[in-house]
Predict the 3D structure of the following.
Amino acid sequence: MSAPSAKAAADTFPRLLLKHAYERPDAPALREKYLGIWQTWSWAETAAEVRAMASGLAALGFKRGDNLAIIGDNRPRLYMAFAAAQSLGGVAVPMYQDAVAVEMMHVLDDADIRFAIVEDQEQVDKLLEARESRPQIEHIIFEDPRGLRSYNAPGLTSLEALRSAGAAFDKANPQRYDQEVALGNATDVSVMLYTSGTTGKPKGVCQSHQAFITAAQGGVQFDKLVATDNVLSYLPMAWVGDHLFSYAQFLVAGFTVNCPESAETVMTDLREIGPTYYFAPPRVFESLLTSLSIRMEDASSIKQRLYNAFMKVAQRCGSDILNGQAVSSKDRLLYALGNVFLYGPLKNTLGMSRIRVAYTAGAAIGPDLFRFYRSIGINLKQLYGSTETCAYVCLQPDGEIKFDSVGKAAPGVEVKIADNGEVLVRGAMVLKEYYKRPDATAESIDSAGYFHTGDAGVFDSDGHLKIIDRAKDVGHLSSGEMFAPNYIENKLKFFSHIKEAVCFGHDRDHVVAFINIDLTAVGNWAERRNIVYSGYIDLAGKDEVVALIKDCVEKVNAELASEGELASSQIERFLILHKELDPDDDELTRTRKVRRGFIAEKYEPLLGALYSGKTVQHIETQVKFEDGRTGSISADVKIADAKRLPAVRKAAA
């Protein structure tokens, strides 16, 4: 590997890649588990593959300013595709791999996609379907050839063939690749990530090399990440968090990115790799805790007593020990014993034994869920950011972790609160523009360069930012008290039996909630009580299950009773939805954020029944199946009342 040009600073992703390949050619860059065996690409091998891939794209006519769609599960060669496009001055446009063809249409149109690199037959089929009405999609390149032998569509080729053509092109044009990389500018757009689209159609967020590299450098320095660190990359590549951790920080710090064999093997692969750096949205941590709760319910009485005893110790002093705070000798001894008998084996089971830093982002995490992981010795922290800020606004410093905050402004970031309570941020990590949407860009970034996040927040006395809710979602009850639905929903979702919750109450005299039960957790609970059920709808309608969820709701009400103005937001009535909220039915975004307005409109009869005093409401709902077909399901949904408690006035400190 020849030395990168002295004139070219490592200020773009392709130049960072070449720097690592030159300085540490044999160090592991990427790994993938394939047929049960881990395959490794060194930095030199990664750079060589990117060069061949980029040259192949150039041979097909891909040029500076073109957009490359990238669709599939986390795969090393798909990450290489980002760098290949960027090497030629192009823009990577990752798309959610679980989206159906119809959902992809908007991004394919909006981003003017002519070239796409995809994982397998499933994604090829979607693009071929889309191309029937979008003939501008000229080239579809696939990595996995299984099932595609008989396909002969125009412009369809394998990644292997692209690399071979690239090698020939590179041989005939030996200076072309290096020249293109040298032409790159730090301020060029490197990636276009589409917003989740909780309101309206998703917008293309154009982020530059400089923006993501600045964010990555800040995070790497903040948490002292090094080249020997390991991460497991399993979250959608179209999510801004994955792009920060698995691509930008990977190329800045030079650590190793590991891709699991499949979604089903993530936990096994997690234990095998033993990452030192880990990230996941709250729903993953919720799912892990739910699985643990189910296992403990099935454990012997001795194991349950041991678990309960040591968890009391952990809850009492675990977080303080992790934060380096003073703890009594007795508690330290008990915690050390707990680490031998419970916390250590538990972290090993979760694949988190070697973790130095774990982050959650993408949505607020319930304080109790946060407390659980830190109490058993996992350095879980929250970061705050968005697609428009490279997921980089606030970070939690070690030793200053607060369960109800997202930390302090990250290095190089300015944060302030507007008069209306909205969080405003400024820094190099702010988006360059929304693609073809100057109106939206001007609306989001003010004349002083501050990006308007749309979140409502406050600073505490230590300078930590607290996010209350989306600014547009924060409302008031008819009595005038604050109503923050997302805050209440997070409290509900801490319970292992509740998978999703949607609360309503703005301009109403009380709060009501839609609940999705967790089929696995509640199913296990029902089976141990000999409650027979035929499926989700049947289980959700059982009186015993309604009583189980009622207990969870009333525990949340007890917490809210001591939270000042939010005491009035206690839930008065609730129902268990007859179906799980699903991105395919447009009820959730692909990052599983609730589309509250859409849900309120879709289930208006249920919402009306909650406020009219009914105890049962019949509903028929249209649903979409994975193959694109539609159908309907119907049920008589039961509505229950929950006990509300008088507000508790906190004693003065």
Notes: The two ends are 64 Å apart (CA to CA). The chain has a mean pLDDT of 92. The first strand starts at residue 28 and ends at 34. The first helix runs from residue 13 to 23.
